Amino acid sequence: MLSVGVALLLLVVGCSAGGGTPDGASSQGSRPGSGAAPGGQDPVAKTKPSPRPTAPDYTLRPSRFPTDSAGALRMARRIALEPRKFGPDFTRGEPFEDDPRRWAVLDSRCVWQRAALPPRVLTSLAQHSVLPAQGGKGAVEVVSVISVHRDVDSADQELATTLEEVLRCPKQQLSADEEVTGLISASNPWGKRGQRTADDQVWEMGTYTNHGTGDSTPYLWGTSRLGTVTTSVTILGGKGFASGVLEKMMAVASSELGANVKRELA
Hints:
Blueprint: H1 2-16, H2 43-46, H3 69-79, E1 91-97, E2 102-106, E3 112-116, E4 121-131, E5 140-149, H4 152-168, E6 172-173, E7 178-187, E8 200-210, E9 215-226, E10 229-237, H5 243-265
Antiparallel strand pairs: 1-4, 2-3, 4-5, 5-10, 6-7, 7-8, 8-9, 9-10
Helix pairs in contact: 1-5
């Protein structure tokens, strides 16, 4: 599973860096057969490294942060993605949405439960999209969650808690028949490891096992924070799919959710 995690992190870093050439590299080499520049100097050697950004290229306006649950839920629905955004054959799961007045909490036994939102969380919209099993490949479930907090500190604490939970519970029970094991996590605040798309990001990788079907597949989960809003995407299942395909689902969905948050808050 470590190779899946490394590949995912590299993919995220590549997307958040904005593509192009690495910092310090030239996008233009010598022309074929041209050799060195006049005077014997290599034009690449004269190229100065591009300066690294020191601040985000996006600006969030606190005046646009929701202050009540009704407004937060309306905004979360505008941010949310329809199933087809994950792929043309995805459909709504049953149920499609969980109660936005509750969210998932990892209890002392490392079992996930639904609980009432704490006072500093205005809403938490969880939606389930499913790619049915077909062509000899297993079903894929994508769970996306948009949570809107009253303040930045509360949103930041959500990500900090996530990192602590992996250390406390490297094996977690999702339901009576489902569990994730071998969990590892990584934190990417803005500016670290090339991450320049969100204020903060946390990623988890491990193995998802469904004891009802007997399948074990890669488990991928990622969350991003922009201001008072956190967005997360979970990939479950996908027997027979190459890990790179599942990682791409994760990266594309996370990127689109982030873009939608910026549209709302910028």
